Structure formats: C-alpha cells, structure tokens
Amino acid sequence: MKKLDNFSNCLTILRNADFKLADNNDIYRTGVIGQFNLTFELAWKALQEILRLHGAEGADTGLPREILQLGYKLGFVNDSAVWLLMLKKSNTSVHIYNEQEVDEMILLIRDSFISAFVALEKTLREKLAEAESDWT
C-alpha cells in the first residue's frame, strides 16, 4: 500500500537522524523537524487508509484529529496523548523562532515521537495483513 510505504520510508529517514549533529547544526535541526512533519502527515493518512480498509465508520472525515481519535478508539493508536501532542506540534512547528522551542521539539521527536511512529507502523502492517486476509 503506497501510503503506508511512504510513511515507512519517511520514518526510516527520521529514525536515522543524527541527533548529536542536531545539537549544534541549525540546518540539520530544521531538517529533522521538517522530516517529523512529513512523517506525521503520512502517518495519519496511512492510518486513515487502513481504517477505511477495515470499514471504520468515520474514517472518511479527512481531519487528522478525528482520524487519530478514531484510531485510538479502535485500538490502532496506543497513546492518544502523544499523538495529540504530535498534532499540536506539527501545527505549530513552522512558527518556532527561538532555540529553546527548537530544542524541545528535537527532544520530543527523539524521545517520544519516533517510538510512537514505530508502534503505529507495526500496527498498520498487522492491520493491513488482516484486511488483506479477509479479502482472500
């Protein structure tokens, strides 16, 4: 599935980020935050697509908050607080202007967001396999 593959590819890039380099390289820091934003966007869209495959009512809404809440309700997302924080940070990250906020964002990506993405990727792969086995 293309959306899930795109999410996985972006996640691989984010997972391979050198967070030591991000400590003192402004361009690299900006790149990590940009990669987070892209990964987040692809994550909720892949979630939406898998929810649709499972016939989840409300999966056609198209709004990230509703998709994330539905994913949590149906057991596709395991930590709603982290995902809602990701949503908030993805919406505000383009308006980060001071180093303290950038540092906080980098730490959140490294310490919380990547592991949430990894967990979602695993769940989506399992849920996709379930949906495909239902077709055969």
From TrEMBL:
| Keywords, alphabetical | Transferase
One Pfam annotation, family name? NTase_sub_bind
InterPro entries recorded: HepT
GO molecular function of the protein, one example?
A: transferase activity
Concerning SUPFAM superfamilies, the annotation shows: Nucleotidyltransferase substrate binding subunit/domain
Name the chain's protein.
Nucleotidyltransferase substrate binding protein like protein
Organism, by scientific name, is Blautia luti
